[in-house]
Amino acid sequence: MPVTRADMPKLVLCNMGVEGQNTLAGATARGAYSRIAKALAMAPAAVTDEVKKSNLRGRGGAGFPTGLKWTFIPKGAQTVYLVVNADESEPGTCKDREILFWDPHLVIEGIFLASYALGCRHAYLYIRGEMMREHHVLQRAVAEAYKAGWLGRDHACAGGGSFKLDLTVHRGAGAYICGEETALLNSLEGRRGWPRLKPPFPAVKGVWGQPTIVNNVETLANVPAIIEKGGEWFAGLGTPKSGGTRILGISGHVNKPGVYELPMGIPLREVIYDVCGGIRGGRALKGVIPGGSSMPILTPDEIDVPMEFDALMTDARIKPVEIRPGVKLDIGGGKQLRTMAGSGGVMVMDETTDMAMVCWRIMKFYAHESCGQCTPCREGTGWLERVTRRLAHGEGRPGDVELAESIASGIAGNTICPLGDAAAWPMLAFATKFRAELQSKITAAPATAHGAA
Ligand SMILES: Cc1cc2nc3c(=O)[nH]c(=O)nc-3n(C[C@H](O)[C@H](O)[C@H](O)COP(=O)(O)O)c2cc1C
Predict the structure, then answer these.
(1) Which of 206, 237, 259, 289 could form a disulfide with 202 if both were Cys (CB 3.0 to 4.6 A apart)?
(2) What are the pocket residues of ligand 1 if the criterion is a CB atom closer than 6 Å to any ligand atom?
(3) Does residue 12 form part of some domain?
(4) Domain containing 310: what range?
(5) What is the pTM for the complete model shown?
(6) Cα–ligand 1 centroid distance for 12 (angstroms)
(7) Which of 350, 365, 384 is the last residue in one of the domains?
(8) Do 198 and 267 belong to one domain?
(9) CA–CA separation, 303 and 275 (whole Å)
């Protein structure tokens, strides 16, 4: 049974709002680095086993089981890297920056524990360039951790050996694509931030050609609690296949927007109407994006769903996204996508929202951020932006909604990385669920003011 809000311990945001917590003195007084001795007394594989038992799933978007990912490092690998993904650029997502600001030492401790499990001696944290405040706090914390000897110094560990970790913070330059793990690795190497073809996966051939694990900030910030209380305890907090808690960044037309640590699987309705105090001005809900702008939008009749990785994709109460009558959005392997938990960025829209405008704004973002490597994404996202711009300005042409669907269908699944899907999925969802509204933006006269095609 997942915990309720009343009995849920805060694992990651426990120090949010606590002044002085983000310094070493403040963090140590509240337990930072206390889990390291316990981990060092265990064999590295036992640390990974604990994480496997915990059912911790990646919080960067895909929800892949973390412990299982760690086991993909080839046996006997000499040089292994851990790369922490702090690029956080998905519109609507704002959790990692809060974790980094309020508890950088928790993140460093999580990095230490994961590195020990993986046999990584030098970890990298790739932080989004615009996060000046968080970068400053993090750099100070890293310097403190070096001075205190948590980093850069040998620690005796199980089996009579020693373990030493170095940590480098690397600033990106504000490109959304560099959050995609292989583009991030290219950028870290000083190359253009273009995604790599997989396989080989980073766990086999990652940064500088070496086995590499890429994990999100929130994912790693959960590891200290797993080591302290045990994997089973952590698993017991969540749903059968997703352990722990979930951080949601909720924005839009609610009375109390914010970043909240909540029980895994909390119903979306409870998030909107209870945690966030309902819709501003007592208005009606029109739509909600549950996990960052790349995730298909849900309508008011779809919010009785647990906010949990599997349920959002497959909950029978949620209708699959139908591209056109009878044709559902297939994300491969016969799985039909409803929506996804994604990066935890919940965007709530009330009845006054112009969905054509929202759709255009989202398409504009992906067209701007497409790295240009794959033709369907490079050409398709720009085309979608032009078509939705016409609709948003009431200058749509007959057939524009069908055209948008056809372009999106041509992008989905046909690119090296999922940025193409990130544009296609929401487009298909808007065209299905708010079709009448988009159609109402079509004028008989062909418009030319905002570009051809
Ligand atoms: C276009 C794109 C952008 C992404 N941006 C981020 C990001 O900003 N932060 C992040 O942790 N993961 C991001 N991801 C997911 C990463 O590729 C990767 O799955 C994740 O960092 C793995 O960490 P986890 O297993 O701990 O979730 C992005 C993926 C794509 C396709």
Answers:
(1) 206
(2) 58-62, 64, 85, 87-90, 176-177, 179-181, 214-216, 219, 417-419, 422
(3) no
(4) 244-350
(5) 0.94
(6) 19
(7) 350
(8) no
(9) 14
